[in-house]
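Hi Prof. W.,

I finally got the PRP1 splicing factor N-terminal domain-containing protein prediction working! I wasn't sure whether to trim anything, so I left the full sequence exactly as given:
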Amino acid sequence: MERPKFLDQDPPPGYIAGIGRGATGFTTRSDLGSSALSQTPNRYLENKSLSTDNITEDVYEAEKIFSNIDDELSTRNKQRKNRNQPKIKSTTTKFIDLKQQLTAVSKDEWLNLPEATDMTRRNKRLKLENQQQRNIAMYNPSILSTTNLEQLANDREKLLEQHIDSKFGTILENNDYQELLKNLNTNSNRIDTYDVEKSRKVLQSYIRSDPKNPNGWIALARLEEKCLNFKMAKKIIHQGCNEVVYDEDIWLENIRLNRIDDAPLLLKCKTLVAQALKFNGAKSEKLWIKAIELEQNAGNKNQNTITQIIHKALQINPYSEELWKQAVKYEESKEEAIKVLAKAIEFVPKSVDLWTGYIKLQDFGPQQRKTLANAVKELPSSKEMWALGCQLEERAEKPLEKKEESVKCKIIQILKRFKTPHNNDVGYCESWLKQAEKCDLEKYPITAQCIIECFIPNNFLKELLPKINSVELKNFAFQYLLLKQEHLNDPVIWDAYIVFCESGNDNTSKLAYFFQFCELTINDMDDDISKKSLKILTKYNKQDETLRIIDKKLLNTSEYTLRNELQIMKIGILISLKKYSECKRIFEQMIAAETTATIFLKYIDFLIYLNNYEKALIICQLAMEKHPDEEEFVIKMGTIYEFMSEIDKAKQCYINAVSSNFSHSISLWILSAKHEANINKARLLYDKGILKNTKNSGLLMLEKAKREFENGNLSEYRILLNTALKSYSHMPEIWCQLLRTTKKKNEKRNLFQQALKVTNTNALILLEVAINFWNEQQFEKAYKWADQSCKANKKLGDSWIWLYKCSVKLGRKNTEWIKEKVNEIEPDSGEMWNSRRYKFLYSLPSEKLVSLA
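And this is what came out:
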């Protein structure tokens, strides 16, 4: 180290040591003079070796040499340290692989890259945009559910551990190259350059340590293939074949890499197969099959060459089942194939496929049965052999045109001889089910059905139903289950059977099976199942079949309620067939037998539907005599007068009713006031109705407010509506009226939020939000709110109307699901839905939906 130069210089004039650091009030060594050296031993001053006055040039030269040595040593350590540390990649080298992948970017992807945005005053601008676009939030109950932060943290830790484990360590175990090989096959075409280089070094080290292991050569060749280095891959696998000549897999990999449908390369592959067979011919079945495949792909029309290869292979490997199959495949005549199979089962007597092929190729007769007996003797526990025997029996009985039951009995007797193991479980039953499906696919349905009856218990069959793919077999399985006494009225199985019959685009055959089964079992079904089945029949316009089944059920039913429901269902079908006289006859019989209010109401509706108002009035008066306490008959009579354009009679009918027995009927008070043209008299009627129904006058107050609004008295309207809202805040009808007549958007938004909260997200409020968005031409939001309304109350028909309107407005092609859902649910409420009730009285709900929308 060099001596600092300032130590050999004279201090400037007036310099006081330590004064610059604030040293005052003490003495220094220079102030003491010679007394400062008096305590120093004399031995340190011999020859004045510590004095700076007599330093020679040799001393300076020695110090310079030693300082150079120190510098050299320090730089050498730095170089060694830098060599051991990994180099820090610069930014340009870091993204080389990504730049290379830019060549795969298409023109459309490049054009669709997002533009750079303006970041100046970004937060303030986003805040203003959010304030401008702020709307009513969509009600979603799932938002209220809390998030499990602890679970999220645990999942994040697990993911981090997996990521660290996947990157940890560079030493692989003996089988790790196989995992690497799988990753090469499953990963995408984009490969990290660093990972490839790392994998290449690992595999090369494996090959050097164990060159006789074929897996290392195969993995390295596939790695190069993945990197599109085909020449290097072929070179590596060729070296591997020279190194490991007695392994079939490495030869097959070599053939695969050289395999292209080109004559020279096919010739090379055939050469490779020939070389591989020299070393592995005695034990490799795959190489012989590959040789046959190459000979076939080469376009060799001469079958003799392929046959010679197969014969040579069988001479070396006579116990190979696959080679015998190939021999049968390339035999041109049936007789020669039978001879080959006869020889094959001598060498491979436990092969199910060879026995099956041998039996099926033989002509039907005693010889075939004898061969089957030998097969069963050789393979007594083979399901395939027993199923084949049943197929032969079914095939023998077909020309005789015997009844299905007799054929079933014979097949079941055959199957009973099969010794069933004691450990029956789902897996065992599933194997028999697969065998049944195979028989059904081969056009042996009776055998398939017998297998299910004999080997699959009911509890397992119920569990295995979803796994059956064959339509006919699945239909049989459902019916077989339902015919059992314990399952006939099982609603779960029936629902699954109905879903199965209705599924798919072409369900004609399944529905035909369903109709036949219903006709067979209708008398054994309980009331709910029978009504559900008949509704399915009616749904698919099977009027004749349904009428036949209903008549069969009526003959064996004495229960009054069920008979009435069946008769009403029958009348609906007859009306669709326009057999009105038959319907009148049935109604007259029902009224003569039992005079319940429901039958009267159905009959009056039917007469109104036919515009036979005089007859309807007569029946209505008769019903009021039989049931004087039913207000529905008063409403029906007023409705009939309205259809006859006799409004005064309708009003008088309502007023007389509320003045006598029906003073507590809110519906009749509303109808009587609505039909009063004089506003003062209408107010009086409303007030009387409110006084008579003080505890439940919300609807009366609402209707009175509506009448004031229609009359233009807005101040009175607001007073009445606010009064009703204070007393009956839970009624959604009052909120809907308030929302319809509110014009200011900010005020309406607050009212929507308050109404949803107070009414617990009632379907009417949700629908009113949807209508509001529709009026603002925000059809997507209107669709979402209408959908929420349908979910909140499925019976509200107005919600389905608006949902359908929004779907059509948005141009959505799939609106059939709405019609199907409406037909299934059959809505019965809603102001729009019931506005034209009698016109669509006997129409399908979907037809009514389309018309009203």
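Residues 31-52, 136-147, 167-177, 186-190 have pLDDT under 50 and may be disordered. Does that look reasonable to you?

Thanks,
D.
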